[in-house]
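so the lab meeting is tmrw and i was supposed to have these ready like two days ago... anyway. pasting both below. for each one the top line is the aa sequence and the line under it is the structure tokens. i havent really looked at them closely yet so no promises
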Amino acid sequence: MKNKQRNASFELLRMISMCMVIVLHALDKSKILASTEGGVNHIISWILESLCIQAVNVYVLISGYFLVKSRFKTTRLAELICQVLFYSVIGLFVGLSFNLFEPGYINNYTLFEFFFPIHANKYWFITKYIIMYLFSPVLALAVNKMSQKKLSLIIIFLVIYESVVKSISPIIFVPDNLGYDALWFMILFLIAGYIRLYGLKAVDTKGKAIGLYVIGAALIFAENEVVSVLNQRTGHFAELKKVAFNYNHIFALLSSIGLFMIVVNGKKIEGKIADIICAVSPMTLGVYLFHENPAIRFKWQEIFGLYDAYTKSSLKFILCLLGAVICMFIVGMCFDFVRKCIFDLIKKLTGRMKITAWLNKLDGIINEE
């Protein structure tokens, strides 16, 4: 019954976004982007980067789209924290058992961090997401109570400040976190909330959404190539390389909205396919926690031969990259399925404990109108 309440189209987009995240980590952390100067594989790498950089923004947009009309769940927050702690502690013991950590990495300080992964920012996305989630009741209330005009103006002001100005600036501002912060996530929440309530007239068809996504990705690629050429010729634009790939860059934001609106404007997936998607989608976040675990964060790229993949033919390069992404996604899903079974058993055994009733009582207070 729970799965039927999910929108399979958005769940599929969530899974696709996670695959895109793995592509980004495969390209960046195997040094492929830094090693493919010139040649066909150089172009392929940056095209893929341009087409996948929207992943994090889209993932947050999906959350905001539903959270703006959902009840705050303390139990969900507690489960998310426990999920992160599970992967962090398991990763620590696996890393120590198989000597996966770099020499000198483990000390009293880093050891302590594994037991407080959220505050230690072991998974930056989760840390910022939880902050956004904690603010979600306030943000949702504001979105639902404001007039459309007032909400749109606030979003415009925030986007100008956090995105437009930083996108056109010839220097990198010191306070700019490039979209790797809770403030940017909350701005995306407001945008998603606006779309949920009022739609987006400028992108009200699937065709327009595809166009915005593709054009935005093309502009990201073009800006990066222009800056790279200028830097090679003058040596004065090194700091601006890869700026277009910041999450809060205006091109990244627009193309992310385009990708998101493809599903908003598209036909809802139904039937058995929808049931399958909704059954496996809860393990999607586990894929991120698995492949970004500190114990293997820079190891799996080597296992799949990505460090020298750029030296191969373009076909072999693409197959090697896609093979690594698919394998990591499937293994991550399987691993999180085991984790989910363990958690479901624990919830069944502790379902009548006082802490559960206490958390539900907190939900009632937070969601009281």
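ok protien two:
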Amino acid sequence: MLLKLTGSAAVLLACTGIGFFAASEVGRRERQLRGLYAAFLLIQGDIRYQKSSLPEAFFTAAGREQGEFSDFFATVSERLYAHETESFERVFCEELHKTCKKSALKRKDIALLEQLSGMCGRMDDNLQVTAIEWYLEQSAQVIKELAQENGEKMALCRRMGILAGIFLLVLLL
């Protein structure tokens, strides 16, 4: 009897854990987009107020960004400093695709960042700030939509994990 009770508790806990893990994965994309939003807000401020170049602004963002994209900003900055002849757009897109393999970003998020790189690489400071403002507006809209969707999805994942555990218990007992 004790073995049956222990096994039942383990099944219920495992299914609940899977449900909570799935819920955290649903929110991962939103967290990453919020981190990118904050980093580009910082980059925009550096370019606008401190008159930093793109490599300097990316270096600063890499130091302050504590999310999954800090290495991305650092690598882009290093490559831009090391290879003056490479275009910003090319470096940005190459590093973006390397980084996004591990991220939860979707194709439309990546496409938005690629558009930003195309605009920033060919402009002066004022137009770079404007391009980043455009990205921030687009990103804010996506984040707002995700926040509304994710609340319901995360709650559903948690509940489904618990219910799956209960269902398995009923089947096994």
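from a quick look at the 2nd one: The mean pLDDT is 88. The first helix runs from residue 2 to 49. will dig more after coffe
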